[in-house]
Task: inverse folding
């Protein structure tokens, strides 16, 4: 299986690569459109600030390529947020894959949400053998609002979409690569989609 | 619900865990990777590696260690000690560290916090603050708590937040090493005045101290070293006790 992690200058790419190594799979880091198109599975990572990440995507033309991909694509954290319509962070237009918007938590709670919280209302093969209320590691100040593409929900101040799916596109707000054994299972499930 | 975090802290020197670790079932207690894996298996929520003898010369050794930890450990970890530049942080994150912790370098040049937050995001910037209560007022100390400053804790903490830190690791020099409990009054005040997570450090001696720092100290996470390293408080039992006291933890 050819697994590509999109390398556009944003994100904890090494952690994701190592997580797949632990599952016995090599992952290639690439920003080459041909290589990404030819992959069996694509990971779209992202950590950092949304508008500068989107700028980097545009500079490399990946903003046009990603929405056209046909194989399973998994956006993680900021990657997932950039796949939505819009994010309040830097007032940034997203790739418009998921029909929802990304908003900031209010100051009624500590921001960022940092640590382990549960995912529930699981609705996808991505969560095969994952039990309801499993703990996942999250670090984020912005959240995706629910839409009919929600496949997991989490409570922090409000109930929001902690995972999304549209056809071959998947996104998780949490970091499966840092979420212990259960996170590794989700990555394994993604490889088996 | 977001859970309270338990964070073992490992002191590192030349890429090896420093003495003071006494795990019976470890083949090599000096191997940070093996120790980190064991803590992850026991339910630690995160790990902190503190390079206590960081120099320019041994930077490569530490980066190697970070790389090996990232390869094998499936929970988040922070690296601290001797970090004072954007390029050093870049190298650590490239090796797979999730967060970095800065301390004295932030006091000496507070703009470093802004630079790191802008370049890498607040989520990976932990500012560690060592402080000591003198005549009823908390003052920031540098160099592992050995050098006093005129800087007041709560003013500095506010500035750190405004400059873009994602988290504060607060160590009370009055409590560190005493095993008499965390500085809960100061911790609660930090938690009330700031809107970023606060990690309590210094003073852990028994399970009740952890319960107290989450309840009275309003801490988001608790860090400890010796009680974990010497097996005085096994993490699975600690978490069970916290749960029994209605404190949300990941079990």
Result:
């Amino acid at each position: 299986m050819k697994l590509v992690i999109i390398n556009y200058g944003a994100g904890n790419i090494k952690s994701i690569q190592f997580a797949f190594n632990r599952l016995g799979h090599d992952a290639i880091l690439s920003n080459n459109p041909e290589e990404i198109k030819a992959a069996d599975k694509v990971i779209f990572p992202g950590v950092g600030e949304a508008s500068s990440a989107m700028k980097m995507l545009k500079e490399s033309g990946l903003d046009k390529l990603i929405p056209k991909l046909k194989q399973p694509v998994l956006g993680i954290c900021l990657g997932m947020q950039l796949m939505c319509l819009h994010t309040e962070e830097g007032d940034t237009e997203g790739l418009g894959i998921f029909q929802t918007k990304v908003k900031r938590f209010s100051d009624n709670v500590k921001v960022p949400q940092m640590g382990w919280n549960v995912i529930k209302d699981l609705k996808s093969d991505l969560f095969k053998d994952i039990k309801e209320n499993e703990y996942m590691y999250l670090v984020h100040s912005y959240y995706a609002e629910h839409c009919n593409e929600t496949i997991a929900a989490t409570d922090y101040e409000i109930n929001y979409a902690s995972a999304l799916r549209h056809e071959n596109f998947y996104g998780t707000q949490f970091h499966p690569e840092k979420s212990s054994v259960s996170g590794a299972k989700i990555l394994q499930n993604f490889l088996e989609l | 619900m977001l859970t309270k975090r338990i964070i073992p802290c490992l002191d590192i020197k030349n890429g090896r865990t420093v003495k003071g670790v006494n795990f019976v079932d470890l083949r090599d207690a000096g191997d940070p990777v093996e120790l980190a894996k064991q803590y992850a298996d026991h339910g630690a929520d995160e790990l902190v590696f503190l390079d206590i003898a960081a120099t320019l010369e041994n930077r490569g050794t530490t980066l190697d260690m970070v790389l090996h930890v990232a390869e094998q450990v499936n929970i988040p970890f922070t690296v601290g000690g001797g970090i004072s530049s954007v390029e050093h942080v870049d190298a650590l994150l490239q090796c797979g560290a999730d967060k970095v912790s800065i301390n004295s370098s932030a006091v000496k040049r507070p703009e470093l916090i802004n630079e790191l937050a802008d370049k890498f995001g607040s989520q990976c910037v932990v500012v560690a603050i060592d402080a000591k209560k003198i005549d009823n007022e908390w003052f920031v100390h540098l160099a592992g708590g050995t050098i006093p400053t005129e800087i007041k804790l709560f003013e500095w903490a506010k500035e750190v937040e405004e400059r873009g830190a994602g988290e504060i690791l607060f160590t009370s020099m009055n409590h560190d090493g005493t095993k008499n409990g965390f500085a809960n009054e100061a911790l609660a005040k930090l938690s009330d005045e700031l809107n970023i997570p606060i990690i309590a450090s210094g003073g852990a001696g028994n399970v009740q101290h952890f319960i107290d720092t989450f309840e009275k100290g309003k801490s988001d996470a608790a860090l400890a070293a010796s009680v974990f390293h010497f097996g005085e408080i096994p993490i699975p039992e600690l978490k069970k006790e916290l749960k029994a006291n209605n404190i949300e933890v990941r079990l």
Q: What stands out?
A: The mean pLDDT of chain A is 95. The longest strand of chain A covers residues 158-166.
